[in-house]
Amino acid sequence: MGMVTIRDVARHAGVSVATVSRVINKSGTVSDDLSQRVQHAISALGFEPDFLARTWRTRVTRTVAAVISDNTAPHHGIVLREAANVALAHDYNLILCTTFHDSETEHRYLRMLRRRRVDGVLLNSVGDCRSDVRALSEAGVPVVLLNRPLADYGPLVDAVLVDSYRGTFDAISHLVGLGHRRIAMVYSRLHDFLKHERLRGYRDALHAHNIPYDERLVYCSDQPHETAVLSMSQILTLSPRPSAIYAASYDCALTMMGLLQAEGLRIPDDIAFVMFDDVAWAQFINPPLTLVQNPAQELGRVAMELLFARLADRQRPPQEIYLQPELVVRRSCGSGRQDARRGLYPARAERTVSRVATKE
Amino acid sequence: MGMVTIRDVARHAGVSVATVSRVINKSGTVSDDLSQRVQHAISALGFEPDFLARTWRTRVTRTVAAVISDNTAPHHGIVLREAANVALAHDYNLILCTTFHDSETEHRYLRMLRRRRVDGVLLNSVGDCRSDVRALSEAGVPVVLLNRPLADYGPLVDAVLVDSYRGTFDAISHLVGLGHRRIAMVYSRLHDFLKHERLRGYRDALHAHNIPYDERLVYCSDQPHETAVLSMSQILTLSPRPSAIYAASYDCALTMMGLLQAEGLRIPDDIAFVMFDDVAWAQFINPPLTLVQNPAQELGRVAMELLFARLADRQRPPQEIYLQPELVVRRSCGSGRQDARRGLYPARAERTVSRVATKE
DNA sequence: TTGTAAGCGTTATCAA
DNA sequence: TTGATAACGCTTACAA
Prior knowledge:
The structure is a homodimer of 360-residue chains. With 360 residues, chain A is an alpha/beta fold. Chain A has 3 domains: 6-57, 434 Repressor (Amino-terminal Domain) (Orthogonal Bundle), CATH 1.10.260; 63-163 and 297-323, Response regulator (Rossmann fold, 3-Layer(aba) Sandwich), CATH 3.40.50.2300; 164-294 and 326-341, Response regulator (Rossmann fold). The first copy, chain A, is 41% helix and 17% strand. Chain A is built from 12 helices and 13 strands. Chain A has helices at residues 6-13, 17-25, 32-45, 51-58, 74-89, 103-116, 130-138, 164-177, 192-208, 225-232, 250-262, 296-312, and strands spanning 63-68, 93-98, 120-123, 143-146, 157-162, 183-188, 218-221, 244-247, 272-276, 290-293, 319-323, 326-328, 355-358. In chain A, strand 8, helix 11 (250-262) and strand 9 form a beta-alpha-beta unit. The interface between A and B is large, with 52 and 52 residues. The first copy, chain A, binds a DNA duplex (16 and 16 nucleotides) through helix 2 and helix 4.
């Protein structure tokens, strides 16, 4: 079963290979007559253009990549799913690169992707990968940053972010509205930028409500779950004990829940609990969890669309799109004064109408 | 910045392109002297072999694909992560294909992958994709089936499965040991094979304990969560109400938990609850969930290793590997007679020492 | 509108 | 051990 080439088709149809190519790619102009004959020959011989040869010739791989720290985090899983869906709609394939929070692995992947000449990259970076991103940019490969601000990366780099600051501000304000004044914050395994933003949201929210910042209430660990547990538990031994916990990410929310359970602390009776990020099961457990809904679906979709938009117009100035998270109140903070004011932060725009900021 | 080719290197080193190629690929034999000169030229010019050209010439893409119904299901997320990790170790890239439980999408992906000449495919099929798999096989692309039995697909197809039957048998036996006799089973969005296996496990376990099978206690829905809720709720209106629920998959476990919550039924006081599949949060919620631990990590790793083994030896007869799940007892079934016998099914082998069955 | 032919960068065959 | 050169299948000037 030798492979059927464009030459075979040309011979069978009695035309030149150029004509066949033109028919396949609907490029140039071909008379109806010849076009018909070529079509026939193609189906008669069962010809399929060799994807590899075409890719090599045209230098377009119809492949994009998503570089993600951990695809099993629910948030990232959804981002990935949506991104894959958009890619599929464009007849592109998606390469999954899980970096496992390791910047060496990230570097390795980014190099691989450049050599492979993928058409674009979605990047949820772990470490400092300026040079890799710039190399991609120079090689003409556009990059969309996920939840990372647009720095001086290059002309082909865009970004889409969830407003961590505001999400956190709202969550803390909600707790304050419920009467809490000793609110602990725990976070882990987040990129510096997100840490900074969420911590800033925490501090500003406290400040806005005239609650002094107490550093003993803030705990950050980048250790994996198992070792984090021990050190994180100290926050519960403080006296007086914090009356509420804000878990700034999925990872440490799990850790914290385990900890509360181990200590026999019940949510919300003994302690209130809010987390950033969204999880499908939050509404099904007891008590249902109040959380800051991270618009992962939108993030994935918008990011990939931005990438294709960039592919279509490489001249457009870099864009930075902000998505708004939403506080979903359920029962893990108690029912105190449910409808207390939601903070001093100005009312947000509609969530689906994302705030779009164009930089530069 | 024109591209540096192998020809430039050859010229710079004063050798032929063939020699450069030999040095790059460590193929053939090159004297130390020339090898040195070539190495120098390579680093002096910053030459990087063109991946696309090489791919086209050699027809090996160093790319594998994972076709998965839904990457956001925790189980699949882990499989994917482990598979990606093994691929990375071999310097391969992984294409993610999420089929969204749609066999048309699956078909489309499988065709794409064949045309792309990926080196191998991991497949968690939705529909009947015999012809696609056979086409891959004929094109020389090995496939590893995930949780699907080895049928007459072709010579290059292997399979790795989790023993659903036994996992279910154990779960039901556990409930029976705790004194339950009215055990409901719900399942959804599973491949027919898994449905069949889990239902068989359920029936056999009941039978082994002389409990009659009551079809009203078994509910299957392939509708998405929202619509499934209503119909699934009927199982709770039975009188007498079942005293235990076995949720045969992650999807419907969530649905069921929501339902129980809505009905104000507490786990385990009002009703016992076990599920198949593993989730990170099971141990952190109240009550911690008893479940059949699905060895997703092992599944992903073994599957990808099997694929590479096949790539290394295409003659080896097709293999079907079974992995054993493990019942993890926590508190969602109550503490009844905790250490009751765990069923009549013969003791299992060590979990990590997987039962390996070679077919044909 | 159609055909001819020149690449694209690499690997691999064959002869030296 | 090394070098010259022919593929590989397609796209795309350029010529007709």
